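Write out the bound-state structure for fe (ii) ion.
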Amino acid sequence: MAKLIGAIGVSHTPTIGYARDRKLAQDPVWAPIFEAFEPLKDWLAEQKPDALVMIYNDHVTSFSFDHYSAFALGVGDQYAVADEGGGPRDLPAVPGHAEFARYLARAVMAQDFDLSLFQHKPLDHGCLSPLCLLTPPEETWPIPIVPLQCGVLQFPAPSAKRCLDLGKALRKAIDAWPEDKRVVIVATGGLSHQVHGERAGFNNTAWDEAFLDMLQNDPDRLAGMTHAEYAKLGGFESAEVIMWLIMRGAMSDKVACHHRTYYLPSMTAIATVRYEDQGQDTSQAERERVRHETTRQLEGVEDLEGTYPFTLEISAKAYRANRFLQSLVDPAARKRFLTDPEAEFEAAGLSDEERDLIRRRDWGGMIRYGFIFFVLEKLGAVLGVPNPQIYASMKGLTLEAFLATRNAQITYSVSRN
Ligand code: FE2
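---
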């Protein structure tokens, strides 16, 4: 059975990555940052957890306002290093613990906490600044992560209470994971700072210290505060410290603090903490309830003949293939595809099997492989194949035989023509 062995809270300013990349550990201005992270690094190296849940916010790098969500869980097996404007930092891609992440997605959503899910999105400094000091990479990173990106930049944003409650759901999910694994949860962000407007440069050390006290001893009081109250006390961008409440919610009521530092070098107060639980684990009955709920929604679906649920595992396997057919909504892309499909297959990195299925217009084979139907109808529209022809093919019927089973003898597609 999985165990949450500890929780860490750290700021995620770009300065941390800056100092690390320029090897400024001996510089007196930067040294306190390295000294603050050192005991956390040593503890993680000693404990060797199987996974880190990394709670962070993206800074309009990989997530945009065309679709902005409250809580986005990364379910991929690898994350690239983001380019934030000056080229990506010289770091290896970060391994994701995909199996754990997909389980967490199911187990948290089973507790009525709907998450958005992402894969193939690069990580920015919100995650990587602290991670590179917590688990310094060499050829690769020593511990796989599960990233949890929080939408705290555009309002409405999740409340502090919602963050605390998400932490509680995460804890139950971790405790209910049947694998014999050890997990650490890491929250990032803050503390006091404001980076925009005439109030830029605002800090409040007294509030930062009070926040750290309350986080440990009275998180419910923090959960009752509004975004405006956080902004007033700590500066507008400091409201991102509500992400620390996710970490705190994952711990029980009583925690022991084994590490706490605070340093204010420039714009943002840099704090680090580490907690271990002193309270109760999730009860056995509750673990079993969560475990059951985690699989209940799709229980029995395997008995439905000719039915292929689009699960996270299928989504990951067929990601490139689905993405390729979705790209045909772009007129230039479909023109290239119709002119030279083999060149497009190559550019998209499709496997031999995926290319063969598309070449042969094997609609049923595509579904069984992991293509979702809604990209098949896009391919149909590009090729002039009506939807009923695709349905007929999947069922092994002629178009006429399939239409005979319908009330109306019509053909149509998602094409405008
Ligand atoms: Fe941030």
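---
Residues 31-47 form the longest helix (17 residues).
The chain has two domains: 3-296, 304-403.
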